[in-house]
Amino acid sequence: MAKHHVHTTINGDPIELLCDTGETLLDVLRNQLNMTGTKEGCSTGDCGACSVTVDGRLVCSCLMLGVEANGKKIGTIEGLASGDALHPLQQKFLEHAALQCGVCTPGVLVASKALLEKNPDPTETEVRYWLAGNLCRCTGYDKIVRAVMDAAKEMRSA
Amino acid sequence: MRYEAPETIEKACQLLAAEAGHARVLAGGTDLLVQIKTDVLDPSVVIDIKKIAATRTITSDAAGFKIGAAVTGAELKEHDALKAAWPGLVEAANLIGSTQVQGRATLGGNLCNGSPAADSVPALIAAGAKAQIVGPEGRRELAVEDVMIGVRKLALTKGEIIVSFTVPARPKHGGDAYLRFIPRTEMDIAVVGCGVALELDASGTCTAARLSLGAVAERPLLVAEAGRALVGTKVDAAAIEAAAAAASAACRPIDDKRGTKVFRIQVAGVLARRTIQLALDRANGKTGATH
C-alpha cells in the first residue's frame, strides 16, 4: 500500500511528509517529525494530552488521521513560544507552579491558547468547562485555572 | 487499510457499495478511530466524507435548516440562528465529549455510530429531524427515529450515506430541550437522555409535542404516547405527569455499570418532567439557550 503524500503547515512552516493510513496526526508529529512536545496519553480522545489546533480548531491529534492533515494548518505546543520568549500562558504556568509531572501541560497550554483566542476574558467556570477534556493527575487543576485567568488578564492589558 | 476522500457523494457511495471488504465512513472519527485502535473494527477502507461540501454546511430557508452530516458540534454551537431556533439540539450535540471532541464530532457520526446513548439523537428525533440519504439506488429520506434499528444496527443499506439532516423552522410558540442524567457534571455517557420539542398556540394550548428517550432501549425511542399526553393541554402539572408516566412506561433498558433497569425507568420519568418544563419555558419565551 502506497503511503499518502501530505502537504501541511505546522506552526506556520510548510511541511511535506509521507504517512500510512493507520497513522494518526499524533503519530506523525511525534514519530516522523520528532515534534515530541505533543504528548500521547490515552490515545482514545479522553485525556487531551495530544491537543493541537487544526485550522484554528482545538482537537485531539490522536483522533485524527495524519492524512487528514493534508491542506490544513496545524498548531502545536512548539508554536507557542517565540524563540526564547515564552508565551504569556507558559510564563504564568511557571509563576503559578501550574504543572508537576508536565505530561498534560503541552495539551493544557494549547487548549488554553485556543480558549483565549476565542474568549479573551473567560470566567473561571468557562475555563474549567473548556479544559474539562484536559486531564491532570497532579495539580488538582486549581493552579492551572489560576494561571490561565492570570495570563488572560495580562494578555488583555498587553 | 486504505483511505479515500471523494469530493462528491455519488463517488463516496460508489466506493462504499463496491468495497468487497469492510468499508467505514469517516466523519469526525471520534468513535471510529477509537474502535479501529482498540481492534473493535478493522476496516479495509475508510471513506472520508468531509470533502463533500453538502456534508459540511448549514443552510437555512423559510422551511428550516439543513445541517450537513459532518458539521461538528463546535460549528453547531457557533451558528446563532440554529442555536436560537433549536437550543436543545445544539446543547445535546455539545454534551458529547470535551472541547477537543466537539471540534471533530458530528451529528451524522453520533447517529451512525449506533449507540443507544448517543446524546444528539433524542434531540434530533424530538425536533422532527429527517435524514437525507444517498445510495446506489438514489436519494431517500428517513425520519431520524427510523435510522437506528438496534445497537450498532442502522436501516441503511450497502452504499448508503447520510448526507444531511433537516429540521423545521422554529414554530412561533415552540421550544425544545435535551437533558441527560450522568453521575458527574461533564464528559460522560448518558444513563438516560431525554429530548422534547413542543409547540403552543396563542392561548398556550399545546398543539404538537414530541418526546424522545436515549439509553433506555436498544435504540433511541420516540415516545408517541408522551407527546399525546401533552397535546390539547396547557402543559400543566397533570399533563406533564401523564407524559412522564408514558416515558417511564416506554423504557425497556438493560442493567449495566452506568445504571440499573429500575433506576433508568425512574430517571426517564424525572428527566421527562424536567425536559418538558424547559421546552415549555422556551416556548413561552422565558428562557433561551443555557450555554
Please give a quick description of this structure:
With 158 residues, chain A is of the alpha+beta class.
The portion of residues forming beta strands of chain A comes to 15-25%
What is the CATH H-level superfamily of the largest domain in chain A?
Answer: Beta-grasp domain
Low-confidence stretches of chain B: none
Compute the number of helices of chain A: 5
| Major pleated sheet of chain B | 5 strands, antiparallel
CATH topology of the largest domain in chain A: Ubiquitin-like (UB roll)
**Secondary-structure element string of chain A:** EEHEEEHHHH
What percent of the residues of chain A sit in helical stretches (DSSP H or I)?
Answer: 25-40%
| Oligomeric state of the chains present here | heterodimer
Shape of chain B: globular
Return residue spans of chain A where pLDDT drops below 50 for at least 5 consecutive residues: none
How many beta-strand elements of chain B?
A: 14
Order of helices and strands of chain B: EHEHEEEHHHHHHEEEEEEEEEHHH
